[in-house]
Amino acid sequence: MPGGLRRSKLLPEPTVARLPIYQRLAEELARRGRDTISSEDLGRLAGVSAATVRRDLSSIGRLGTRGSGYDTADVARRVTELLGGHAEHPTVIAGIGNLARALINSPLFNGFPSKVVALYDVDPTIVGTSVSGLEVRRLSEEDVTRFEVPPAIGVLTCPASAAQDVADGFCELGIRALMSFSPRVLEVPLDVTVRYVDVTIELQILSYHLEHGRGPLNGGLLHTLGRSPLQVGARP
Amino acid sequence: MPGGLRRSKLLPEPTVARLPIYQRLAEELARRGRDTISSEDLGRLAGVSAATVRRDLSSIGRLGTRGSGYDTADVARRVTELLGGHAEHPTVIAGIGNLARALINSPLFNGFPSKVVALYDVDPTIVGTSVSGLEVRRLSEEDVTRFEVPPAIGVLTCPASAAQDVADGFCELGIRALMSFSPRVLEVPLDVTVRYVDVTIELQILSYHLEHGRGPLNGGLLHTLGRSPLQVGARP
DNA sequence: ACATGTGAAAGAGTTCACAGCC
DNA sequence: GGCTGTGAACTCTTTCACATGT
Q: Are A192 and A177 within 8 A, CB to CB?
């Protein structure tokens, strides 16, 4: 087993959600030739407090230098490594509608953390067709041994009514990470991680805030970004 | 001013994120003829603890009956009301690519909490064309007075590089609720709510858990659903 | 009996504030 | 002087446990 500190102390979930933001910013800064950045500046860019940045980054090791700040390239590298390096996890998608097609063609889904390797549907007019070079198959007829590397991530873009069955099928294939766009809570074994991307709920939350005003919270979003009251004022 | 308890005591954000789930479940149960449900059963369906269900529901009023549980139709109605009733907030979308097209055609975006009323892009080959019956315009040339009812929700499906400009443009139109699919933290005035839907971050979070295992957390998802360790075991 | 509503306790995460190092 | 790393305080949520009501 290579690497060093695998299974260190398990980071707090909100920290895990913020790390990709730091990584993205640090990478961009490094690319632009900026070598170091203070927790205060990085916090401003990420929309969180300087204290949170320091706590987050110190939780994955000592990577700052007192007096000058964090090395941008270093932060980008260390965080990337912690988040699974440059692995391209084999990813499968079930429910090949417009959303799935949009995702498949997005560079976000084909490169860094994931790479689409199989597509599933049940509609006979879709099964057998080819989308972006991949044949659409039936999940129920899939055979895990067909894969060189077994799929690691399963994406659900199917109707809510089919979501639980698809989730079951994914779990049976040995997939332990799911991302669901279906408006439904899934039951999965304890070792499976599920991330929900539920546009309906997001809209309802926005609707609530339109009606009742905003709490003193930050964007309060998607990724549990933070509760900080730090929300920059309108731009000049 | 109609209604009753506007601006009651501002609910905790995690509660706001869970209410749509209860609403959805309660509605479904009522439709199927189930009149009441206990906090324990509702919690199981929603993936949270019974105590959390009770705390959440009691925070919006007294809607349970001791001894028998919650009236499903009642829960559905009260929560819907709190989340903005059946209002269809006029919604605009900037960045008309595959994702936007998928959203526009989705029933989720055209009906209950939102209704798409305008589309924007900057690509000259797209501006002027019609998508699902709406002409694509330039945000920079938009005139608020054109709208009968001013837009309330702005959706960003544009490249990250354009996101901040679009957000500024939206804010200038008077929009106070944004939903961004662009991988970038936005600066907005304090009275504007932003919800991020960042697929890249979600994938990186999954990647992290594939590498380091799951904490004892729930799906831990998107909408700050909950931190409960209540994750049902594999289905039979 | 049974199940809600809610004080009180526990747990999680964030912010403060400063010692320690560059 | 400037900025990180971190114990301690604080705030926000969840869970416990039981009084209360049907």
A: yes
Q: Smallest Cβ distance to B223: which of A89, A108, A198?
A: A198
Q: Take residue A70 and report the two structure tokens written for it.
A: 């964090």
Whether residue B14 contacts residue B224, with contact meaning beta carbons closer than 8 Å, is answered with yes
Q: What is the average pLDDT across B41-59?
A: 96
List the pLDDT tens digit at each of the 236 positions of chain A.
Answer: 333 344 456 899 999 999 999 999 999 999 999 999 999 999 999 999 999 999 999 999 999 999 999 999 999 999 999 999 899 999 999 999 999 999 999 887 877 899 999 999 999 999 999 999 999 999 999 999 999 999 999 999 999 999 999 999 999 999 999 999 999 999 998 889 999 999 999 999 999 999 998 754 444 333 344 333 333 332 32
For strand D, which residues in window 166-225 of chain B come within 7 Å by CB?
224
Give, in degrees to the nearest 5, the angle at Cα A39 between A33 and A41: 60
Cα-trace Rg, chain B? 20
- CB B156 within 8 Å of CB B182: yes
Q: Which residue would you say has higher pLDDT here, B224 or B202?
A: B202
Q: CA-to-CA distance for A184 and B45, rounded, in angstroms?
A: 9
A103-115 pLDDT, tens per residue? Answer: 999 887 877 899 9
Mutate to test the interface with A, among B185, B228, B230 (most CBs of A within 10 A): B185
Smallest Cα–Cα separation from B163: which of B131, B196, B208? B196
Residue numbers in A near B109 (CB within 8 A) = 199, 203
Q: Is the dihedral of CA B186, B205, B223, A122 positive or negative?
A: positive
- Whether any strand C atom is under 7 angstroms from the Cβ of B220: the reply reads no
Q: How many residues does chain B have?
A: 236
Distance CA B201, CA B130 (A): 32
* CB-based contacts of B192, cutoff 8 Å, min separation 6: A214, B171, B175, B176, B177, B178
Cα torsion for B174, B177, B183, B187, to the nearest 10°? 60
